[in-house]
UniProtKB/TrEMBL annotation:
Gene3D superfamilies: 3.40.50.450, Transcriptional coactivator/pterin dehydratase (3.30.1360.20). One of its GO terms (biological process) is tetrahydrobiopterin biosynthetic process. It catalyses: (4aS,6R)-4a-hydroxy-L-erythro-5,6,7,8-tetrahydrobiopterin = (6R)-L-erythro-6,7-dihydrobiopterin + H2O. This is Putative pterin-4-alpha-carbinolamine dehydratase. GO terms for cellular component: cytosol. It comes from the Bacteria.
Amino acid sequence: MEDINTPLDPKYKPLTVAEIHDATRKRVSLITKEFKMGFDFLVKHPKSVTFFGSARTPEDNMYYKKAERLGYRLAKEQGFSVITGGGPGIMEAAHKGAKEADGHAVGFTIRLPKEQATNKFVTDEIMFHYFFSRKVMLSFAAEAYVYFPGGFGTLDELFEILTLVQTGKIPHVPVVLVGSEFWDPLVSYIKDTLYENEHNISKEDLDLFTVLDDEDEIVELIGKTPVRNGLRHGRHGELERDSASASHPFDLEKQHCVPCESGGEPLTREACEDYMDNISGWDLIENKRLHKYFVFKNFEEAMDFVENMADIADEEGHHPDFSVHDWNRVDVTLSTHAVKGLTENDFIMAAKIDAIETDIFSGKKLE
């Protein structure tokens, strides 16, 4: 038996608390960069349809052929970019059709220890390190979602999209289930068990998806969906904003605060919730204040953060309230005292403060 007092091999020495925190911050920085990279990429494809389905579907399968035809028609007739996970099976089929139509076959691929083959029809590719980042991009990218028969992954994506639509996190866009023979048993379970017997969903929830077999009907349904300007819905990244909305700028970090006069009107709850989509990790308190606390590696980092936040506050003429606790935590509160509530200035400052945090965590040298 090995003596427990035997010294550990030096290469297996335990991590220190500081090393664990440093690794966590680097991971947070990478996640932030990956989301920003993904949303920047999606801006290039403002009109898109996302296809889901089994990676195991062979070329001679009827669903493969149907996915190929739909990919072709949606790209050729409607001008949609066709987005998939970039792999084989149904993903390959949809991309094959889009490429044959001289359209965009967009692949959201994943970096794995054992290389995952990207199908040869991808024309525009972005690779992700984290599965959840990739999943967010697939879920928040499109004007319509098309589901072919698949396994756990396909069902996971389906119920996530249905939940996002049900809860109002994304608009009610077409969710098309292709192949009644495959989907009817699941639909029966949803109707009979979840709705009628257990009352776990409402009657309106049964309208969140459509089962179709006819390709003409699918193309017509998707073709009628409105195209949103700029990037769309969700709470997973700063760039999710309709650029046609002048009152809600696309990128708050690049905006500037404007003087507020006493007696003005604060933002409504609904407006505040819209703006919350553009900032990260802030709490909306009683619709009057924004609050967030920041934890840094050491006192020096915390002071760098405070100094840079003060510089930006002076430039913008809009000052947050903050306090420093322990040796590395900074609590920040934003509010517009002139209107006794929140204005766009508070959200602009929140976005700029988020950027400072990101720069510090990524090790970027701050002026």
